[in-house]
Hints:
- The complex is a heterodimer.
- Chain A contains seven helices and ten strands.
- In chain A, strand 9 (214-219) and strand 10 (222-225) form a beta hairpin.
- Chain A has a domain at 6-99 and 164-225: Rossmann fold, CATH 3.40.50.300.
- Chain A is an alpha/beta fold.
- The model of chain A has no long low-confidence stretch (mean pLDDT 83).
- Chain B is an alpha+beta fold.
- Chain B is built from 44 helices and 25 strands.
- In chain B, helix 25 (640-664) packs parallel to helix 27 and helix 26 runs antiparallel to helix 27.
- In chain B, the strands form five sheets. Chain B has a six-stranded mixed barrel with strand order 5-6-12-9-11-10.
- Chain A binds chain B through residues 49-50, 53-54, 56, 58-60, 78-79, 82-87, 89, 91, 93-94, 96-102, 106, 110-111, 113-116, 119-120, 144, 158, 170, and chain B through 539, 789, 793, 796-797, 799-800, 803-804, 807-808, 810-811, 1114-1115, 1117-1128, 1205-1208, 1210-1212.
Amino acid sequence: MEVPSVSVRDVFKTYDTGTIKVEALKGVDLTVERGEMLAIMGPSGCGKTTLLNCMSGLDTVDQGEILIENMKLHELPDDERSDYRARRMGFVFQLYNLIPVLTSVENVEMPLLVSGMNPGEARRKSMEHLDIVGLSDRAHHLPGELSGGQRQRVTIARALVNEPAIIWADEPTGDLDSETTNDIMDLMCRLNDENRQTFVMVTHGQDVGDRAHRIVRMQDGRVVDDGMSSTPAGGRKRSNG
Amino acid sequence: MDELFGLSMTYISATMLIAFLAIMLVVGILAWRNRVMLRLGLRNIPRRKSQSVLIVVGSMLSAVIITAAFATGDTISSSIRSDAIVELANIDEVITSSEDSEGFGQPGPPYFPEEEFLRLEESLRGFDQIDGMVPHMAETVPAFSQTTSLSEGRMRVTALDPSRMDGFVPLTTLDGDVVSVEGLPVDSLYLNEKAAEELSAQAGHRITLHIGREEAEFDVAGVVRPGGMAGQSTSSTALLSLEQGQALFDRQGQINIISVSNRGGAQDGADLSRDVTKHLRGLLADSDVAAELKGLLNQPALMTAISEKRDFTRGQTREQLDTLHRELQEDGVSEELVQALSDQVVQGDVLAAIESLDMPADQRQELLDNAFDLFDDLASLSVFEVKRTLLDIADVAGSGITSLFVMFGLFSIMVGILLIFLIFVMLAAARRTEMGMARAVGAKRSHLVQMFVFEGTAYDLMAAAVGTALGLVISYGIIGLLNYIIGRLDVDFSFSYSVQATSIIAAFCMGMIIVFATAVVSATRVSRMNIAEAVRGVPENIVLGGEPSFQDRAKLLPLSIGRPLVFLWQGLSSIARGMFLRGILRSLSSVLWVIIFPIWIVDFAISLVRFSLPYMRRGWLVFLLGAVLYLGGVYSWSSAAAFTLGMTLMILGFGLMMRLLVAARPQFTEVFGLILALSGVLLVPYGILNGQGVTITIGALLLASGAAMAIPLISGKLPRRPQTIDRHAFTLVGALVLAFWLLPEDIGELLAGELQGDIEMFFISGICMVGAAVWTVMYNADLMLQGLTILTSRVGKLRPVVVTAVAYPMSAKFRTGLTLAMFSLVIFTMVVMSLLNDSFANTFRDTERIAGGWDIEGRVTFTSPIDDIRASIADNSTLSMDDFEAIGGYTFAPLTVRQVGAESQVWESYALQASDDEYLAASEYGFLTTIPEYRGDEEAVWEALRQDPNLAVIDSGAIEQANEDFDSAGSFTLDGVSITEDLEGPITVEVSEPLTGWEREYTIIAILDPPADPVGIIASRAGIDVPSVPEIPITTYRFRAAEGVDVRELSKGLEVAFLANGMETVVLEDQIADLVSFFRSFYNLLIGYMGLGLIVGIAALGVVSMRAVVERRQQIGVLRALGYRQQMVQLSFLLESSFVTLLGVAIGVTLGFVLSNNLVTGFEDQLEGISFSVPWLQIVGIIIATYVFAMLTTYFPARQASRVTPADALRYE
């Protein structure tokens, strides 16, 4: 059997602000298959983003374990975790998560440079990926000079440029209008189909969730529906190619 | 210190205090009325403690600098004052003879009959402002202790009348017993403490005084404390009775000094000095002569000339000239007139006024001679306000040193102001959303301004208090260092720390006001915002604001002129509408505007700037202003500052105009450019051919701008993006300004001729060059970034770190530019000071050249000269003529001089060095210039001097210097001789010895090298060996040791051998080294003081980094998500600071090197021996210290940034 991309076992996470304690995750179990496009949905404050951060190794867990490609990411030292992120993961966040002082292409090539790729090669590859997201003509523009949709495409190009195994997306279409949202989702679905990369998305939008293979619903720090038994309304069949 | 920049300290501190209180009152009332804004403003302070601390540190600098400068000045002033008071004790004035003396070059005042004292005493009966007068005589002789075998070459012998010591501090032994010279046995005397120390003498010891060729032996009756009649603590004094003294020096019935004590003590006695001097002068002057003088001087043209002179003087001299001017026109000869005429400074001014009269030369000369003779005959005794003069010197020294430190602190103060501005810009950026929200819910812009002002005032008060305290600590350190420096000079004087309350108040208030004013300006600036953008959190640079209409702007001027009336009207109408508080506040403001007049002026100036700002942005007004300054500087004021500033403004204006033209008519750019460049090409050679600086300047400007605009013709690409146009325009401006400032001096001279410039040029050049460099760098930042990217392409994983570390600061142009400017300015000033210090010190490196190849100087007293020094050495058992290669000698006589045929025929004080044959034969001094006959043959000049006693050479102090600070010996300057040109022919000068009336002419054939140590006119002794002049002994000897002889041992040997002549020797090399080390240490102290500005630069970096950590929190999260390790984040921050620091250092060091090199090269033909040299250790030290401290300050924010977990960082705020 194929090793699942991500598997989450009984994960707890509590935020202690000093005055109050917030139990963000209360024993979450979840498995994400390789090549799967998964949407995590739920009301505000249900722990979606926390789960995403914990799974991607951006945050630590208090209890339980998370295996990424059969590896306990949270047990690695910080530096190795950083290196792992640079090599194997891509991130798409809500707007404004580009580095504003760098041009599109510089933003895209950042993960490649971090993982030590030769600059010329990094630039070539980044331009390719900008081309994939249809923005090669905006390569030397600063994020401030781009529209919201264009910025998000740059973010996607950046997430994909190191050909990661898993792409984490936190509200990837949160600030976009419906037309742009469709464009972005088309792009992500196409990439998911073509490259068999795993996509884990956190979203509020049902139409976005509907484009995923599976929707995991959360409430109050728990997974209330892991979506195994149902396929989203407009859901796609997973390609096994 | 009583005065600074011509204003009394009391006035300064009172004004500052009133302004401070007014500010506090206004801020207090506003805060009371707007408590919400007060809370909003103040709550930020404790929230980010370390940031608040950095802000306070950065803002305190003005207070530190001003306090340190004031306190140092106070200490110096009070130390000299108290020294004067302790040393002179009750002596307030001294009276000496103004008659001819019997010997020229004779030290000490001439004698006069004791009866004159009695007559004076008689006529003073009933005058109650004097409580004592003591007649005495003073001579300086060598002394030898037979008991301890120690000697003192210069023992001042004071013989006083013990029966007239009323009003003076009695002689007191070290044990505190009061003693008197009355009834001393004939062969006994008292020594003061210094004399006892030099001779290791105590009561009962036996000492010998050498009086001419006689010896007199005395028993030491006791040792008395110095001060007053017992002499100064630095001068060895022997005290005996007048009777003894008159017998000893064979001066029966004669005295040479009368000391006067005013009513009151040592301190308050000086307050009466003016009145007493006036009264005494009135009594001593011959009223018939005064009447004659009045008749001579009372002519309208001269009256005008005197009042013109008056305008150039200040203080007491000004009052005296006023009195003279008034009294000359009144009837009769008043006491005021007599005393004004008796004042020697006034006499000099009157003679100078006669000089300036426009009348036939022979008539003027006659008038001058008559006035000169009458002044001479006016009184047989002259009164000197010794204590008052010393106290005045104390004040001048104190305020001089304060001005110096304030001047050198100006850079740091300016850098501090930049920082405060930067801080506010960043605070505003941080709170933009919050401020936008506040505005959205109805807060007015003035509310935001108030919020910032409240916060700023809180920082400001803390900063001023801490700064003042720190300034006191620093000044204490400065005084310690000064004491250490002068201690090495073997001077018996030290400063004792003392600060006046007025200084502390003034410094605190000034520091506070500077920061407050900056805070208000910055707050007004940052409160302008686009509310919608602010709420959305879209980053934004400073909004320049739209251009108000002409009508709106035109209203500003009349409004500001009539501001008090406007306020009053607003106040009254508010009261009428029942708004009492506002009404009262407004009405009070109108009073404030009138009382503190400068506020009104500043108000008007601001309105004027606001009115003309649009025209300035378009460039033409800036160009016009520049042109006015330029032309005024060159043709009217002869001011280098006006010329250079004007030129800089012209370039800036030109750039701004070009930018507008290109932006508005891109299609015509090349055509414009070609036309401009062509006209430039025509104008420059025309200007050079005709020597017209203005034409060359305009031509060069046109050529450069035109060429820049025509570039698209070659590149084929027209700049269309506004950023590109801006870059082109401002790069051109920056490069031209830099090129202009870095022009070698001779090209500058071609442009503008010779101009006057002083220390202010240092500041102007620093600010203009650093500004231009920073500007150019910031507008070309992206190119630099590209360059760096290419350079770092091989550093692997570090590359992304380098990329972000450069990209961030370069994208925040404003704050990076400001931080860069701060670093560059401070480093620039320190580097220039270090380089100049070192290069000027080179002039002293060649001690042979300074001392003319002589090793030792020995001086003997006038009263016990050496008959034949060679014979004496030959006879001496410890010395041998073989020890010497050469021995020369001369007499140094102060006299007056004037140049034949020169415009000014006033006799100026100067000196004659009448030298013996061997001195002239063996001196190895070089010459700045000689007359053509001797050019290239320096020995021939000395030979000529030996052969012809009518020939002379003169020291370079007699040449008019471009910079007045370098003037030495006296005010005498040769007409028609410049430091940069060769002598075309001999110059004839007349010298006159005022005491004997001896006169003769000398022909100057050469001018000495500036570093050479002789002062005055050097000629052969044969010239004064004439029957009309009594024989004048040689008082100064110069020795050149034979090869291999220990110079220091020889020097000691000479002192011992010529003890009876009171010879005191110095090893010239040591003396020069001491002096050099004194100046170097002093300059190093100043460099260190200027280095205080670095604190600001470093604090700025700290603030910027702290802000960056907060602002980029989310981006740090993104980078961490992309795989940045913790150390990479930290490194990125450190690299960013390194980048700014090193760029600042690079700009500062480069500009500093180029400017210093230019300056030193400019001085090369004026100052032999000066050469550009680099104190590497010091410069590298400055760079490393700057870098290390900058990194330390950024380290903590950087570490903090790296410790943020990615999830926390990404969590949206």
